[in-house]
Specification:
Low-confidence stretches: none
Number of strands: 2
Distance between the termini: 9 Å
Shape: globular
Organism: marine sediment metagenome
Mean pLDDT: 57
Protein name: Alcohol dehydrogenase iron-type/glycerol dehydrogenase GldA domain-containing protein
Strand content: 25-35%
Oligomer: single chain
Number of domains: 1
Helix content: 40-55%
Length: 31
């Protein structure tokens, strides 16, 4: 459930490259 430039976190959706670098690790952990 991960799109390009979009990361779905627990009850949170972050857009943009800033979100990628910010939640990149979390997204990988969540799968």
């Amino acid at each position: 459930m991960i799109k390009v430039g979009e990361f779905y976190t627990p009850g949170k959706i972050i857009f943009g490259p800033g979100g990628l670098s910010q939640v990149g690790a979390e997204a990988k952990r969540l799968g």
